[in-house]
Automatic annotation (TrEMBL):
Protein's organism: Ceratodon purpureus (Fire moss)
SUPFAM superfamilies registered for this protein in UniProt: Roadblock/LC7 domain
Region of interest called Disordered, as start-end residue ranges on this chain: 97-126
Pfam families assigned: Robl_LC7 (PF03259)
Name of this protein: Roadblock/LAMTOR2 domain-containing protein
Biased composition (Pro residues): 100-109
Family: Belongs to the GAMAD family.
Biased composition (Acidic residues): 112-126
Domain Roadblock/LAMTOR2: 4-92
């Protein structure tokens, strides 16, 4: 097994890793362990995302170069490693990122809606 295969296996053996996708600069899939429908979406979207981020990094610091993106959502974390020859996408579980909001405070119980009406007004009108 080559160095690359050993490194990919070590990554895939990590507890929270869902899968990885390795694509070349032409968008051809070199290695995929994600479900096929997900891989197709990532192959379509990741290149444009990396181009935008690479451009933003150069705008901020012209001599700097984009190397990695890290994107977190409620359930997953996506790590994209960018190179001139390939792009590696790693998808992993990230349960600790999303904090559920606290439940709303309880409303006090009411016996009836009658207490909200003023009975004195009804008596004055008669």
């Amino acid at each position: 097994m080559g160095e690359v295969e050993t490194a990919l296996k070590r990554i895939l053996d990590l507890e929270d890793v869902i899968g990885l996708l390795l694509i070349d600069q032409d968008g051809s899939v070199l290695r995929n362990t994600l479900p096929e429908e997900h891989a197709k979406k990532y192959v379509m979207e990741i290149p444009s995302l990396t181009i935008m981020c690479r451009s933003a990094a150069r705008e901020i610091e012209p001599k700097d170069e984009l190397q990695m993106l890290r994107i977190k959502s409620r359930k997953h974390e996506m790590i994209v490693v960018v190179d001139d020859k390939f792009t590696l996408l790693l998808l992993q579980e990230y349960p600790g990122f999303w904090i559920e909001p606290p439940p709303p405070p309880p409303t006090p119980p009411r016996d009836s809606d009658d207490e909200f009406f003023d009975d004195d007004e009804d008596e004055d009108e008669e």
